[in-house]
Amino acid sequence: MLFELEERPMRPLIGLIPLYDDEKESYWMLPGYMKVLERCGALPIMLPLTSDEDELKQVFELCDGLLLTGGHDVDPYVYGKEASKECGIPCKARDDMEGILFRLALEEDKPVLGICRGIQFMNAYLGGDLYQDLPTEYNSRIEHHMAPPYDMAAHKVKVFEGSMLADIIGSGIHEVNSYHHQAVKLPADSVDVMALSEDGLVEAVSVRNKKFAVGVQWHPEFSYEVNEESVKLVQAFVDACK
Question: Which of 17, 62, 96, 231 is found 20 to 30 A from 48 (Cα to Cα)?
């Protein structure tokens, strides 16, 4: 007697930008990025670090969505500025790779979620500007570079009513974790600001007239086990990829 195998629905495949360790010359990935995507029903894969456009077009076609991870500072050349002495060492391969993939995603309206560096790169690529170093460029008493554990709240943000983010987690005041020293300074013309921190920094954006092109400054990959809103955000991204 033949038994029919139960047909399982295909999980959306999400391509993750790899993290790069300069000292070890190695690619790596924080497990939280993959675990929260898996929890939300996606199949995450870490992409190869390359700026070869033909190779990136091939892997892009396999992906239902892209997750722009945290990591190196965005090179100021992306937004037409000179690097200050406080700017961290960039990773040109990442900047080039993300530029190609983000362009393809915008052209085909494929979902993108940018986290930390991700929101910064999205804004810079679209013509916005960044603070290269908050401690020296932005006077604030709010903690934006918290100590572990990273799943705890560091400060509050205000989510604007009517935004895509408000549809996902609700408008009003929310608590978020925070681990960054760069941030959006001047939002690009094509993005809508969806949330601000207590001290007025941009904490979330969406690209106008796109299905799902969202960037957040906080880290849902660190907090998803204890913060329902982190799961809701990633779930909305995964659902958009289906």
Answer: 231
Say how far residue 134 (Cα) sits from the centre of its chain: 19
Pair of tokens at residue 222: 């660190």
Residues 6+ apart with CB under 8 A from 222: 32, 150, 151, 177, 179
Tens digits of residue pLDDT in 134-164: 999 999 999 999 999 999 999 999 999 999 9
Q: What is the number of other CB atoms lying within 10 angstroms of the CB of residue 76?
A: 18
Nearest CA among 201, 212, 207 for reference residue 158: 201
Helix (H) or strand (E) holding 169: helix 164-169
Q: For the segment 97-134, what is each residue's pLDDT rounded down to a tens digit? A: 999 999 999 999 999 999 999 999 999 999 999 999 99
SS (H, E, C) 17-81: CCEEECCCCEEECCHHHHHHHHHCCCEEEECCCCCCHHHHHHHHHHCCEEEECCCCCCCHHHHCC
What is the identity of the amino acid at 113? L
pTM for this prediction: 0.96
**Measured distance CA(216)–CA(118) in Å, rounded:** 8
150: nearest Cα among 20, 25, 33, 17: 33
The Cα–Cα gap between 212 and 203 comes to: 16
The total number of residues written for the chain in this structure: 242
Cβ contacts of 142 within 8 Å, gap of 6 or more: 154, 155, 197, 198, 199, 201
